Amino acid sequence: MSPDETKTLKNIEQKLLEKDVPTIERLIDELKSQDEKVVTRIKRLLVKHHAIDVYIQALKTPNDKIYENIVDVIVELREVSVQPLIQALNDPSEEIKNSAKSILIQIGKPAVTPLIQALGDPNEEIRKSSINTLTQIGKPAVDSLVELLLIAKKETKRDARAILINIGEPVVRPLMNTLKEAHIDTEEIK
Q1: Region of poorest pLDDT, from 90-104, 152-166, 172-186
Q2: Taking Cα atoms as reference points, which of 152, 151, 153, 142 lies closest to residue 176?
Q3: Rounded to 5°, angle at Cα 141 from 136 and 142
Q4: How far is residue 17's CA from residue 157's CA, in Å, rounded to a whole number?
Q5: What per-residue string of b and e applies to 95-121 under the rule 16 or more CB within 10 Å gives b?
Q6: Euclidean distance between CA atoms 160 and 74, whole angstroms
Q7: pLDDT in tens, 7-51
Q8: Angstrom distance (rounded) from CA 142 to CA 160
Q9: DSSP 94-141
Q10: Confidence band (pLDDT; 50, 70, 90) for 1?
Q11: Which alpha helices (DSSP H) does the chain contain, by range?
């Protein structure tokens, strides 16, 4: 790398540390580059400086290459991105909502506990989307949902029961084992 490139990179790093939105947006726009080395370098920078709210807004891009690359960045951030993605389930943009749901499903198990907590959110849109997302995550969510049947309030138990029913077959064995271990009759979880 030339001295000029090194200086430019350090300048970009500093702007990223400051969460300079125009710099982040310019980098996101460069994700459409055909040069995979450039794209890989940008993705590393974006992962390192998680400006997740800016990344989520970038999901509105009409450019498929930028979209795919920004999804990769958000998925790589895993736990860091889960709460902002859950809040994005209530975004006015359908694109953002659907993308957030899809990314949470890709993240899988690390998203389960925060999504279960979101079942108690006062915002109905977030609750409904959390139910749908947990259902689509499926098997990785089963143990936590079964446990929820034993300890949750009535409304949350109802949601957990609906999710487990929609997940279907992968639920049966963990549910039966948990109930057996807890010496609970199935009538007690209604």
Answers
A1: 172-186
A2: 142
A3: 110
A4: 43
A5: ebbebbbbbbbebeeebbebbbebbeb
A6: 27
A7: 666 777 777 777 778 888 888 998 998 889 888 888 988 888 888
A8: 9
A9: HHHHHHHHHHHHHH-HHHHHHHHHHTT-S-HHHHHHHHHHHHHH-HHH
A10: low
A11: 3-17, 21-29, 36-48, 52-57, 64-77, 79-88, 94-107, 109-118, 124-137, 139-151, 154-167, 172-181
Q: Which amino acid is at 56?
A: I
Query: Which residues have C-beta within 8 Å of that of residue 45, sequence separation ≥ 6?
Result: 12, 13, 16, 27
Burial of 72: CB neighbours in 10 Å, binned 0-12, 13-18, 19+? middle
For 88-127, the pLDDT digits (tens) are: 999 999 999 999 999 999 999 999 999 999 999 999 999 9
pTM: 0.83
Count of all residues that appear for the chain in the document: 190
